[in-house]
Amino acid sequence: MVSGHRKALEWLWKDRCTIYRQKKVTDPQTKLTDFVESPLLENQPCKLSFETLSENKGDPVAVKAQSVKLFLSSDVEIPSGCKIVVRRFNDLQREFVYSKSGEPGVFTDHQEIQLVPFKGYA
């Protein structure tokens, strides 16, 4: 049963994500095996969050970095190495492509996953 808190959170999440993974496929005629991208989960409600981090370790020039976090249902499990495509529907539709970085922070009604730019399947 989905709690009232989760329903309220998911109602606020306007972004949608699709999770892709590599799937092993063997051609029956040639017996050659290849990997194809296949959707694991589609159109999942989520929230993409950006945070700019500044770091100044005594240098006169501060280093800036961006931290990207994905909020989604705690029922969803994303294996390592997957490609995560997040679509944002505002006045200007945007698409972001990431990969999971480390273990998610799983809570009662949601989970938080640190993301890094997708550079290809491992």
Quantity of strands, as a count:
7
- Helicity range of the residues? under 10%
Main β sheet profile: 6 strands, antiparallel, barrel
Beta-strand percentage range: over 45%
Helix and strand composition category = mainly beta
Q: List the secondary-structure elements in sequence, H or E.
A: HEEEEEEE
Round the Cα radius of gyration to an integer and report it. 18 Å
Number of helices: 1
Q: What would you note in describing this structure?
A:
The chain is mainly beta. It is 7% helix and 55% strand. The chain is built from one helix and seven strands; from the N terminus they run αβββββββ. Strand 2 (33-55) and strand 3 form a beta hairpin.
Write out key terms for the chains shown.
122 residues, mainly beta, 7% helix, globular
